Amino acid sequence: MLMAADESALTEVYDCHAPSAFALALRITGDRAGAEDAVQEAFVELWHRPERYDPGLGSLRTWLCTIARRRAIDWLRRQSTQQVYLTRLAGQAPVEPTVEDDVIGAATAKAVRESVRALPVLYRDAIALAYYYGLSYREVAVELGIPEGTAKSRLRSGLRLLADKMSAAGYPVRDEYTPSALDRT
Amino acid sequence: MTHEHPDDLLDAYAFGDCPEPWAQIVTAHIAQCVRCAALVQQAKRAAEWFSVSHAAAPPAGLRDRVLTAARAVRPPLPAAPAEAAEPYLWQVVEFGALLGGLSAVHWRAPTPSGRTVQDLVLHLAGNDHNVSADLGDRAGPRPGDAIHVWREQTDRLLQTIGRADDALLAQPVRLAGRAPLQRPLREALVQRAFETWTHGDDIRTAINLPTMAPAPEHLARIVGFGLQLLPAAMDAAGRGHPGAAVRLELTGPGGADHLVPLSVRGTDPPRVVGAVRMPADRFGRLMAGRVTVTEAAAVRTGDRAAGLDLLTVAATLGCE
């Protein structure tokens, strides 16, 4: 219904997915105003160009979070203060969600948090720098004081180990993606 | 590039950090490289997990700010659009979802009419525009990609219709099709649904997807729209049978029994001379010119020639 400019569809999508997008943007920016802007841009983009969301490629939540992540990273880069990413990462307290998600979503979220916590810190940092700050292998290498090749291999190994842990917890990488009610547009 | 793996781009690509034209290069590569596709899948899955791993209540005012910003870039429909627009609205939703999934190759694919998918979408937007222009919206959408032109045009038409009252719905507007006809907006909206459905199925056929019939009540309205035009069309085609009628038994979803006069002239009530029986959705496709009379495989009883005349003329009721 977003294709037909149905505003009630937009509010429904917002209520369903804004908490995830906001939490992600906030982890990246560390700034509520910056996070709000990123979330707003994601939902406005979806409303403006609904045809860009392809359900075959993933859930609507992931799509919105992809946009919010990108906007949040761009916001962070525009800040004049030099970013010391590793310090910012270290400063992130482990956050338990403040919003009750749906039952299945809550279980997945818990599994992800536990799997990530269980990763060796070297891998976890490499993944976090690449994902939460969009750093290239070179930038990750600079942050961690390691060669670029090592940064890349830590990221890859980290992703593989994360996939193994999630698989063991019942969330395989190669899921047959089936759209859910969450993806109704 | 065939033997090289764009290995350094894969994680960035999966996270959404890969700019064009490199993103296109990766897309093309992973379509044929299992190893790289698996690495992208692994990183994409991680990104999905991170996007659901935390949730935090956004500030209370953000929802309204989002809605305000959204309205500024694209005006919303009124909360309860006119009931007469409903079949069209639903076809717009389906058509839009279909277009959203098309690849660059799909857009260039030929459709049954010979036009490419892209040209077909522009053609549809053009016919939609004729209706909104007749309602006063002369400007039309800005030029651009076919999908944007189509979506902007449907937005404009649905905005113009809004919560249309009976007076607006009675306003005469151009119908698409061979004969230069004007009919009330109420009927033209059903034709918009009809044409959007027809071309949606043209695109599905072009990209090897199964066709999709409209909801039964919408299909019934599309059929009804055609049947209303049929008696005059039969006279115009020189196949009218004054005073005669055929019982058209449409089966399946959207089906009903119709008594179809075979001319605008003659006795009232007309004399029933025969019957034609077939599924309603196939009759809709026949009307659209997408199923030939022979392919229609209708069962004709009684005056079979009269039944054949009905089908032959019904097959000219489409929008081209």
Tell me what the structure shows.
- Chain A is mostly helical and 185 residues long.
- Chain A has helices spanning 7-29, 32-48, 60-78, 85-91, 103-117, 121-133, 137-144, 148-168.
- In chain A, α1 (7-29) runs antiparallel to α2 (32-48), α1 (7-29) packs across α3 and α7 (137-144) crosses α8 (148-168).
- The N and C termini of chain A lie close together (5 Å).
- The model of chain A is unreliable at 177-182 (pLDDT under 50).
- With 320 residues, chain B is an alpha+beta fold.
- Chain B has three domains: 7-52, no CATH class; 80-206, Four Helix Bundle (Hemerythrin (Met), subunit A) (Up-down Bundle); 227-314, SCP2 sterol-binding domain (Nonspecific Lipid-transfer Protein, Chain A).
- Chain B is 53% helix and 10% strand.
- In chain B, the strands form two sheets. Chain B has a four-stranded mixed sheet with strand order 4-3-5-6. Chain B has a two-stranded antiparallel sheet with strand order 1-2.
- Chain B is elongated.
- The two termini of chain B are 45 Å apart.
- The mean pLDDT of chain B is 92.
- At the A-B interface, α1, α2, α3, α5 and α6 of A face α1, α3, α4, α5 and α8 of B.
Which descriptors apply to this entry?
heterodimer, A: 185 residues, mainly alpha, Rna Polymerase Sigma Factor, Chain: A, Arc Repressor Mutant, subunit A, 8 helices, globular, B: 320 residues, alpha+beta, Four Helix Bundle (Hemerythrin (Met), subunit A), Nonspecific Lipid-transfer Protein, Chain A, four-stranded mixed β-sheet, two-stranded antiparallel ribbon, 14 helices, 6 strands, elongated
